[in-house]
């Protein structure tokens, strides 16, 4: 895999062929295209963890509805801001909607300017070829001071890689987060089968001792 | 006793209590960022100032019993309206954290600017009774009826209520354009304009006289009673039909399709309390769309749905009671008056099929590829995105009435359309740093 530089990025973004085009929309400012990455901005929708009577989250036992119910969706229009307090966690989304062609993948990293304030922009990190949607960003304030988050601010960087031998996606890769436009809660609950297999495996292993 | 010293004591203390409660609420005491909700907040503050003005100008000790009773009445009215103003506090909160889709909010603000004027403050809030409704100047009853008081706020606050369950049903939201029509009609006296044109037409006045006389003979009711009833119904019907026409002006077919699926399950050719029969509404809406040049586009996108709608329009001239038949026939005969009045209001801001069709095609094509239709070159017009959204919905869910309903359950499509409108609005307003 090679990382696309500015010239290649501009070519990919301006490609007339929609099947080959790297769509990053809206690209409000061409200066967002850097030497080896594209700056991404913060969107207007957030998911905050709701305080509930529940003891916690168990992705192997809780239903998707139970996981979703613990999150509260908040919309912060342009010009307003969301304050993220120390040790607090919020899911956000990029302002830009991406459509990667089948021969491109990407990595998302935080911008160091935010990291130095204590804001960690951890994300799903790897973006699959063919992905369509706004990226979910997992924001944590690890600093000691509350931080104001303003929609539209440049918050992360996207490094694009070209694949040498692109392959069609697995079925489960296609459907899990299809074309999201807002931050997505964890879909681990949809992998409950895996948790059940692990549980069964644990029982099998422990029964060998009995 | 009404208006005695103890009554005044109670009323003044209650009014002071209501005012203090309102002012103590941080949702009112804290300023709002930007302009959204600012006029509504000032309107509430004007209400408080008007009531304080009333309190300061109460009758003196030697005032007549009549004056004292009148003051007591005005204070009771003030207290009732102050209590009602508590409803505005969640509205103010909603301007900071909108629950309606942000893309819809932006396009609805654009519609409000066209229909009502640039000095409108639109507040879109969910309604606990799950109703669509519009209210302008919600507390003007006290403010305007306080002699010697001048309101500070001159921007029109418009509160648009919608059912919370429809918050993200972006394809249904062109219904908001009809609702804003009520504020437009009120602000620009459009019903009066239509009624005046009808009154100046001898054919209308003769038909009116004949109908009233026939009903007097048939019912035994007084002429003034029948005339008044007929006039009231006529004005109600004109208002509803004008709102439909205004919505068509600014949203075109993107209004017609949700309008049909919204009203037709509730009634067909029956007369509503304030609404004309839906068959008549569909007929006049289709006539206006045709006049505006939308028919070829609609026949291309949804030929079967258009055949269905034409059938409904054909039923508009079915049997009705004499009074309602008179209204229906006159409004059909004067369709051009409704159309002209709506077109004059929107002027150059009316949706133009020649400009919108290619943009709607582009939006629909991008949606088909699961690409957000913000616009590959310049940002697409938000109204074209909405139209392209309907175009894609009909292609995906079918060219038949049930397909229109199924489109509203397509969450992903509506999320894409709403986000595209939000981001195209942002991109249009964005000026890159030099």
Oligomer: heterodimer
Order of strands side by side in the largest beta sheet of chain B? 1-3-2
Outline of chain B? flat
Q: Quick one: which chains have the greatest interface?
A: A-B, 28 and 30 residues
Unreliable stretches of chain B, pLDDT < 50, 5 or more residues?
A: none
- Going by CATH, the homologous superfamily of chain A would be Deoxyuridine triphosphatase (dUTPase)
List the total number of helices of chain B. Answer: 21
H/E element string of chain A? EHEEHEEEEHEEEEEHH
CATH class of chain A: Mainly Beta
Mean pLDDT of chain B: 93
Which percent range fits the helix content of chain A? Answer: 10-25%
User: Would you identify the regions of chain A where 5 or more consecutive residues have pLDDT less than 50?
Assistant: none
Indicate the proportion of strand residues of chain A.
Answer: 25-35%
How many helical elements of chain A? 5
Walk me through this protein's architecture.
The complex is a heterodimer of chains A (210) and B (434). Chain A is α+β, with helices and mostly antiparallel strands and 210 residues long. Chain A has one domain: Deoxyuridine 5'-Triphosphate Nucleotidohydrolase, Chain A (Distorted Sandwich). In chain A, 19% of the residues lie in helices and 34% in strands. Chain A is built from 5 helices and 12 strands. Chain A has helices spanning 6-14, 64-69, 112-115, 171-175, 192-207, and strands spanning 2-3, 23-25, 38-49, 71-75, 82-84, 89-99, 104-110, 119-123, 126-127, 132-141, 147-149, 154-162. In chain A, strands 1, 2, 3, 4, 6, 7, 8, 9, 10 and 12 form a 10-stranded antiparallel sheet that branches. Chain A has a two-stranded antiparallel sheet with strand order 5-11. The model of chain A has no long low-confidence stretch (mean pLDDT 88). By secondary structure, chain B is mainly alpha-helical. Chain B has 3 domains: 1-97, no CATH class; 189-349, no CATH class; 353-428, no CATH class. Helices cover 67% and strands 5% of the residues of chain B. Chain B has helices at 5-24, 26-29, 38-56, 65-85, 88-96, 102-115, 140-144, 175-188, 190-199, 202-219, 223-251, 253-263, 278-291, 295-301, 303-314, 322-333, 335-346, 353-368, 382-397, 401-407, 411-429, and strands at 120-127, 133-136, 156-163. Chain B has a 3-stranded mixed sheet with strand order 1-3-2, sandwiched between helices. In chain B, α11 (223-251) crosses α13 and α11 crosses α17 (335-346). The A-B interface holds A 18, 23, 25-26, 28-31, 44-45, 74-80, 95, 97, 99, 132, 134, 152, 178-182 and B 33-34, 36, 96-99, 102, 105, 369-372, 374-376, 379, 412, 415-416, 418-419, 422-424, 426-427, 430, 432-433.
